[in-house]
Write a structure and sequence with these properties.
- By secondary structure, the protein is mainly beta.
- It has three domains: 182 residues, Galactose-binding lectin (Jelly Rolls, Sandwich); 174 residues, Galactose-binding lectin (Jelly Rolls), CATH 2.60.120.430; 104 residues, Ribonuclease Inhibitor (Leucine-rich repeat, LRR (right-handed beta-alpha superhelix)).
- Helix content is 12%, strand content 35%.
- The chain has six helices and 31 strands.
- The longest helix is centred in the first third of the chain and has 22 residues.
- The radius of gyration is 25 Å and the shape is globular.
- The relative contact order is 0.11.
- The N terminus is likely disordered.
- The structure holds 2-acetamido-2-deoxy-beta-D-glucopyranose (4 copies).
- InterPro entries: Leu-rich_rpt, LRR_dom_sf, Malectin-like_Carb-bd_dom.
- Its main location: membrane.
Length: 480
Amino acid sequence: MSHHLVRLFLLLSSVAIDASSALHSDPFTAGVGLNIDCGGTSNFTSEFGRPWVADGYYSGGAVGLVAEPHHFRLPQERTLRLFPPVSAGKKNCYSVPLPPGRYYLRTFTVYDNYDSKLRTPSFDVSFEGTLVFTWRSPWPEAAARSGAYADFIAAVPDGDADLCFCSIATDPPVIASVEVAAIHPLAYGAASTGVDLILVNYGRLTAGSSLFGPGFTNDSDAFSRVWQPDAYFRRRDVPVKALSTGGHQILGANQAPNYFPVKLYETAVTTVNSADALVYLLPPVDTHLDYMVWFHFAEIDSGVTMAGQRVFDVLIGGENATRIDIYKEVGGFIAFKWHYIVENLTSTPLVVKLVPVVGKPIICGLENYARCALGSCHVMAMQALKESLQIPDRMGWHGDPCAPSTWDSWEGVTCHHSDNGQNLVVTQLDLSSNQLTGSIPDSLGSSNLKVILLNNNQLDGQVPEKLYSIGVHGGIIEVK
Ligand SMILES: *[C@@H]1O[C@H](CO)[C@@H](O)[C@H](O)[C@H]1NC(C)=O
Ligand SMILES: *[C@@H]1O[C@H](CO)[C@@H](O)[C@H](O)[C@H]1NC(C)=O
Ligand SMILES: *[C@@H]1O[C@H](CO)[C@@H](O)[C@H](O)[C@H]1NC(C)=O
Ligand SMILES: *[C@@H]1O[C@H](CO)[C@@H](O)[C@H](O)[C@H]1NC(C)=O
């Protein structure tokens, strides 16, 4: 028992030192970032001046190479790290030490038949214990062959970013690169919603331009965001025209806290026929989540010289969300952004419509983020319990305790939807008669547990006082 306490203490004190040194410089201002070439053996600088480091920060797995390296233009896309099922628990993670702050994280996931089995794996990716990406076999053809980038924005509260890969089938999770860049702590509405929401990218589009962003072009973006062309998400039967500023300067972009790049506002798309609405179908979404949709506009047509000449309504999921008159808001050649939270979505995909009122609608860019509440409270409490009680490997306590039950699940752990219905939380714990030793950590008391059965083990130490509140609230607790 005592050596656990000592280890825990050392862990806490080293975190405290990291945190105090980080307080002196905000990671965004300091330009903290790291690009990991998973499976790669050497450091290199890309053709766009981006530094990449050889594979590291993983705690298990093996190295692989895509089947057709010539098919991949960027070196970091060719080498892989895979996590065979024998890897357990923390071994399925990348744990990157980072000063506490908010970060943009991008992964590149690719299969390309590296194992000659013609079978894409099924796995989940979690960040700090919250599910962010789900990869299910069979992958879409394009992703299986060419791979897919996926990104999200999240806070790293504790000085360690844990990106974990949990297999739900026999084929090992596979990852080709992990990119991390610090962002402004108040970016994307955090001043009103707090920093705890994870924003998972479901589309970050530039209208009238081709793909751009650090790592892919020489264009800069303060957060390393990559912007993809809108055409794929736009309804094809509406004829559109691409516009560009033609060198005219755009003001009001690249400002705190979001630092949207100037280039985003230098191009736009508008309709050809004045009666047409511009329609975007954003990728399939989970109706249980809330979405944050950002709209980017700039009046870049020098023919529009006063308010009232271009007016359109924004319909989101069929509801009229706002009326936009860019010139009235900011004038010409100035970035104008607006965002909206979509709650209680009833159908997928999310449909965004720009309906003309006067003139033709125009748009420069669109972003859609799923807002995931940081579900890590239960995960951290359970990790602490796992350490304290020396839970044996046979009980399968790996990854997220509330992951789908088809996983090699956490024996003795039962999850239910939380009161707000948004995430799964641990509600029951039956660890009776498991020859467990150690003590019960305090953190367990702040969880959603309603039933705890720990009898018939060799536990020592005190039962944390907080745990008794479970009994007080009508729950069940059996320890001795
Ligand atoms: C890559 O660079 C990092 C520092 O950024 C260094 O610690 C590491 O040793 C280098 N690795 C190789 C393989 O050169
Ligand atoms: C990107 O910019 C760097 C530095 O200015 C330059 O050396 C490089 O050639 C550019 N790459 C491309 C592909 O334009
Ligand atoms: C849509 O909503 C805006 C304000 O939110 C309003 O000004 C406009 O008239 C509405 N459009 C329609 C067609 O009702
Ligand atoms: C969404 O549903 C919740 C719970 O049913 C409700 O409290 C909330 O007001 C709804 N939000 C909107 C925008 O309708």
